[in-house]
Write a structure and sequence with these properties.
The protein is 47% helix and 19% strand. The chain is an alpha/beta fold and 316 residues long. The chain has 2 domains: 23-117 and 242-310, D-Maltodextrin-Binding Protein, domain 2, CATH 3.40.190.150; 119-234, D-Maltodextrin-Binding Protein, domain 2 (3-Layer(aba) Sandwich), CATH 3.40.190.10.
């Protein structure tokens, strides 16, 4: 009987592998159209569609800091036809969000790490600090007086700032905004001193001299600003505070479907036009196996959980 069941399972798996996909695949972006997450998804999806031979449709289901779309995918059939673009916000919400019905490591299966988002520590030109070490010295001389903007309480920009505070041993004053645009605008206007932002959001202003680029928050320097050191190089050893975007499926999705989706995504990321577009957005493509992404997810969840608890950060 056991041999019969095993044979049936193998036969089913082979049939599933040969038949997947046989209908459109949806990629759920849990944020509004036009943002960085949406742009990355819409850059990769057309090439995945070509490789899979079925439509790959990007659908926005925004709200509640990404939790509405995340909850929708968690409750979707585990058949490989509904995917979520998980991000640093998803990893943060795993610990920070209240009254959520999903758990990232329990309710989702990793498919592929698409990109890592490089971040930048930018200062208004009026701030008397030309590098990270001088900023740290200024913050230590004036505890609680140097202000840092974020995209909102509990946002990735907020948590990166809190991580910097912890690792640099400084006291900065957090000023939350409702989104990236107002935070960047007030940095440009000098209403706040510094901002930890996605490189893509602040790059034009840095190149125009409207803000001073002090350090890259990610593990590697950014090719578009080759003279700007990483924050780890510039005074806070071991600092890494970038974001990420990757595809996850509902837990229980057949491995054959995950393998097919992973292969299509990895091949898409390697295509020159996709690769160039993502690098121009300061979101270097990654790819790799589902297991690689699973390890990355667990690392991100653990890192931000430590920051949230150490800073006693609460969701709005």
């Amino acid at each position: 009987m056991r041999l019969l069941l095993l044979s049936l399972l193998v036969a089913f798996s082979n049939a599933y592998a040969q038949g997947f996909p046989n209908k459109p695949v949806r990629i759920i972006v849990p944020f509004p159209p036009g943002g960085g997450t949406d742009v990355v998804a819409r850059t990769v999806a057309p090439k995945m569609q070509e490789l899979l031979g079925q439509p790959v449709v990007v659908e926005n289901r925004a709200g509640a800091g990404g939790n509405i779309g995340t909850d929708f995918v968690a409750k979707s059939p585990a058949d490989g036809y509904t995917l979520l673009v998980a991000s640093a916000a998803t990893a943060i919400n795993h610990t920070l969000a209240k009254n959520i019905s999903w758990e990232l490591t329990r309710d989702f299966a990793p498919v592929v790490l698409l990109v890592v988002n490089q971040s930048l520590l930018a200062a208004h030109p009026s701030v008397p600090a030309s590098n990270v070490r001088e900023l740290i010295a200024l913050a230590k001389a004036k505890p609680g007086q140097v202000t840092f903007a974020s995209y909102g309480n509990g946002s990735s920009a907020h948590l990166i700032g809190e991580l910097f505070k912890m690792m640099a041993g400084v006291d900065l004053l957090h000023v939350p905004y409702k989104g990236a645009a107002p935070a960047v605008n007030d940095l440009l206007g000098g209403q706040v001193n510094i901002l930890f932002a996605d490189v893509a959001a602040i790059l034009p202003h840095a190149k125009a001299g409207k803000v001073r680029a002090l350090g890259i928050g990610s593990a590697k320097r950014f090719g578009g600003l080759p003279d700007v050191p990483t924050i780890a190089e510039a005074g806070v050893p071991g600092f890494e505070g970038g974001g990420f975007l990757g595809l996850v499926a509902p837990a229980g999705t057949p491995r054959e479907a995950i393998n097919a989706l992973n292969a299509a995504a990895v091949k898409s990321l390697a295509m020159s036009e996709v690769n160039e577009r993502l690098n121009a957005l300061a979101s270097p493509p990654v790819g790799e196996s589902p297991e690689h992404f699973g390890r990355h997810l667990r690392s991100e969840i653990d890192k931000w959980a430590r920051v949230i608890r150490a800073g006693n950060i609460k969701a709005d």
